[in-house]
What does this fold into?
Amino acid sequence: MNFSKKQLAHIVFESNDRASRTFDAVVLIMILGSVSVVILDSVSELHLKFGNTFYFLEWVFTILFTIEYALRIWLTTKTFRYATSFYGIVDLLAILPGYLGIFVANTHLLTVVRALRLLRVIRVLKLGRYISEADFIKGALKASAAKIQIFLFSVLTIVLIMGTLMFIIEGPEAGFTSIPVAMYWGIVTLTTVGFGDITPQTPLGQFIASLIMLLGYAIIAVPTGIVTSEMSKRSQTKIIENTRSCTFCGKDGIEPEDNYCKNCGEKFG
Amino acid sequence: MNFSKKQLAHIVFESNDRASRTFDAVVLIMILGSVSVVILDSVSELHLKFGNTFYFLEWVFTILFTIEYALRIWLTTKTFRYATSFYGIVDLLAILPGYLGIFVANTHLLTVVRALRLLRVIRVLKLGRYISEADFIKGALKASAAKIQIFLFSVLTIVLIMGTLMFIIEGPEAGFTSIPVAMYWGIVTLTTVGFGDITPQTPLGQFIASLIMLLGYAIIAVPTGIVTSEMSKRSQTKIIENTRSCTFCGKDGIEPEDNYCKNCGEKFG
Amino acid sequence: MNFSKKQLAHIVFESNDRASRTFDAVVLIMILGSVSVVILDSVSELHLKFGNTFYFLEWVFTILFTIEYALRIWLTTKTFRYATSFYGIVDLLAILPGYLGIFVANTHLLTVVRALRLLRVIRVLKLGRYISEADFIKGALKASAAKIQIFLFSVLTIVLIMGTLMFIIEGPEAGFTSIPVAMYWGIVTLTTVGFGDITPQTPLGQFIASLIMLLGYAIIAVPTGIVTSEMSKRSQTKIIENTRSCTFCGKDGIEPEDNYCKNCGEKFG
Amino acid sequence: MNFSKKQLAHIVFESNDRASRTFDAVVLIMILGSVSVVILDSVSELHLKFGNTFYFLEWVFTILFTIEYALRIWLTTKTFRYATSFYGIVDLLAILPGYLGIFVANTHLLTVVRALRLLRVIRVLKLGRYISEADFIKGALKASAAKIQIFLFSVLTIVLIMGTLMFIIEGPEAGFTSIPVAMYWGIVTLTTVGFGDITPQTPLGQFIASLIMLLGYAIIAVPTGIVTSEMSKRSQTKIIENTRSCTFCGKDGIEPEDNYCKNCGEKFG
It folds into this structure.
């Protein structure tokens, strides 16, 4: 198999034909394999038994990712723009921990960076029908962002005031040792997670906790309402949009029953 | 009561007249009875007291289900297609554990297979008004499948990265013994289940846990939004799709029960 | 104050003028008072201190409710229909426990019946703007009933199969002592309640628990979607319904732009 | 920098130019700083180390807030109306605890009042695009208020009856020491928080708990449905309401940016 540089670039960066799909599949397996090694190596029993194998595999993946990264740097026409892009940095993070492991003693932080390799899957998945669906979700969340920020700010204000109240009412004996801890408990309660590591013991504390829970139960409707109404609007807009463009001025959004272009006044057949 | 093979097939496989409805009712009672026996037999006090009765009843149900299965095999015109269909396999699974119990020592796995008998209820319930309602739910979920896959993949990426972080910050002392365990905790927290068997102890761990909880509380809006907007679209389309046009003036939006065209006054058949 | 029987009946059963609103307010205070006594009497410290006062108050409320019940029986024109109606039975349940307490030793069950007095509040609240709002919620839930039944049946099937699996995988050591207990745990987990009294200990158990949690997190979208799409449809229908009735045949739902009645063909101005 | 009283009032109360935005930014930093001091001072280790610094900072913030409050009182044209308004009271609460701390021994209550300073952030955030978004959320919640009140009342009725039942079934051994405690447990369970500090131990108790959980899981759909359908209606109405009719042929649904009538081709100004 002999490829020109242009053909190789096509395989590595685009993904419509067979060769590039095969390349993507290999990269996908490498990513999942390397992440699995990180996960399994963290289990102490497995680390004791297969620690050396994991170490060897880690180097194999690091070298393979290095070759891939070098390939991308060489093939791209805009080296600097690729290297500083989100994908370029994620690709670099995939190989750095391997080499840093030689110099750095604290391998803990490197473990997190290694887990970040999973982010690379996003590029490979950027295929076919998933793009439009992911864009739909992203678009709805972006359009709801301002509303959700207000909601989160309100939640944090409630959590601070309720947390301070509970800190004073329950005190350290019940586990509410400080306002930050009481706020942590407030978030645990308001979001209906409810670990149970800290629980109110006094009747007054239980009463206020009940109020927080009912509040949390009711206001979960707010983010849901925001995102759902946004998504409903979007998916309905899509239906209406079997519109066409004006043949004269190119204005889009012309509905089938329109007689004249609403932009340039052109008369339609 | 003497039935021809064709009449019997009608009773066993279809369900519009009285005889087949009676047959379905008997099968339904058998299914619920046999599943109840499995459930009650698992309670050790009841097993000690009524173990023999349960064993006897299990054989009764196995024989009854065997007769039913034989009947279906005999009556169907497409034996192979039935035997390899979803319902055919579920029907076979209903009788296998009884006979396998003679040969197999590990009766634990058989218990699960026995519980699968409940799936047989689906066939019996495939009646009347429930079909269209179930199809409505299934349809909405199928149409949302791609979006939900993306959502679940995003959730797993978050869980992996957050789990790795918590494994490093909290460590084995707080119960985060490995990345898989930390990911399990991450799912427990993100889904707002919050068992409380593993909880963060350090301020930094509690801070990151708070972020995960708020995230989980906010992104529950996403699947809800996806399914709701899909269902809203469907239930609105249904209403609109039920109308026809006037045969005289072409006015649309005529509802089935209208006697006259609301636009031109034309009388309908 | 001298009232005729008809005037009294008006005060007791209807509620548009001042006198009947005063009557309703008195009954509301009696209900809340008697329920508060039941609640406070259950706190052992308060029972020790104020037990006699509570006992006395209980008798006061019983006698007052008896007078009210007698009044209703006497005033209603359809005594039997009232006595067997939902409200009639709730009214009777409000006075029975007091008298039964003399004969019955087990006062525990009577406590529950006493708490049922709160249901009487519903009648009193059946006023003003709340009726249409409550009807809106009830209507949406009724229309969603078939879909929610299917949903609950699916949830129970999942809980049975997952519960059986967890009972076999985790066993009695982790608290999964029987299939019913494992199903209880399954419901606790699927509904994201997560008490944490029973938690999986083995890696396989934790993996299956994670699946149940993600499932529960995702399928909460289903009832929400059902109810929301139903409510959206209803609240939108309301807007459209600024329609009028045909002046000839009385058919309602005539839209402003209709030229002819869609029922009788009458021509509109 | 010399400002007239009018210019100062403009800077303090309005916020369109640079000077007033700088003033708002300074106030925002002061608020967040003073709240941070309250939070950090509650952590006993930090209190031991930096207690004096926190005490000093508290006085700095109190004096700065006092100057700001005096400025507002002096600058406003309607002194009484400002002093009794929501913002006026919050501004006063921001300075009171500092001075009260000299006379009052119980500094606990003052801590809560100090945390209330965060409410002052609302005024500063009352800027730009957030206003309309916050109004959207507030509007939707206000319109849903009656429905949510009915919902909360139903939840409390369920909690009272279920709590009484569980108090009788489980009793004090399982932690259900009184009806109020059992109601607290009922709210913890119905809202899917699930602390796990109190859990049912008997099969019957676990069965009823399962019912409560399934109920809670299903009825969370109600507030979500109410708020979502309200928000959907609002965000759709917004779109529709932005259009006008053609002045020539009367065709409606003309969007503001259209140059020609899409029905008759009439040119718009």
Chain B touches chain C through 66 residues (CB under 8 Å). The longest helix of chain B spans residues 130-170. The two ends of chain B are 46 Å apart (CA to CA). The domain at 5-127 of chain B is CATH 1.20.120.350 (Four Helix Bundle (Hemerythrin (Met), subunit A)).
